[in-house]
Write a structure and sequence with these properties.
mainly alpha; 55% helix; disordered N terminus; Peptidase
Length: 130
């Protein structure tokens, strides 16, 4: 059964940045959300996002041109596990320093803060997000 806390927010104001993402970034967020559900995690965090970004970024694939696709998948997995083990080792959970990402349903505060900041930087330089 799907974890309702990981569903895309029905309220655009709740996840402000999500309704401004491009189709490609929306696919990354959807993949990260699936990964979190599969892992049994209570929210989408930076490890899920980074793992999915690594697997979906054409520049990463380009760096391993001619190599088997498993290399990029393994790299993504190692990124996610490294973050997860670091959090477990320190006995911590992801939080945000500023609290800006707190309260976004289905997102860790750190992941929400990072995505909101990235969306803000993209908008400031005139990038089209949606």
């Amino acid at each position: 059964m799907r974890n309702p806390t990981l569903s895309a927010s029905a309220d655009p104001a709740a996840a402000g940045f999500e309704n401004r993402l491009s189709e490609r970034l929306t696919a990354v967020v959807t993949g990260a959300r699936r990964r979190a559900v599969r892992d049994g995690d209570p929210h989408l965090d930076t490890a899920h996002l980074l793992h999915t970004l690594v697997e979906n970024d054409p520049r990463v694939w380009g760096a391993f041109a001619g190599g088997p696709p498993q290399v990029v998948r393994l790299l993504g997995y190692l990124v996610q596990r490294t973050i997860g083990y670091g959090l477990r080792w320190s006995g911590a959970v992801e939080t945000s320093v500023t609290g800006a990402g707190d309260g976004v349903p289905g997102w860790s505060p750190a992941a929400a803060t990072a995505m909101a900041a990235a969306a803000g930087r993209a908008a400031a330089r005139g990038a089209i997000l949606a």
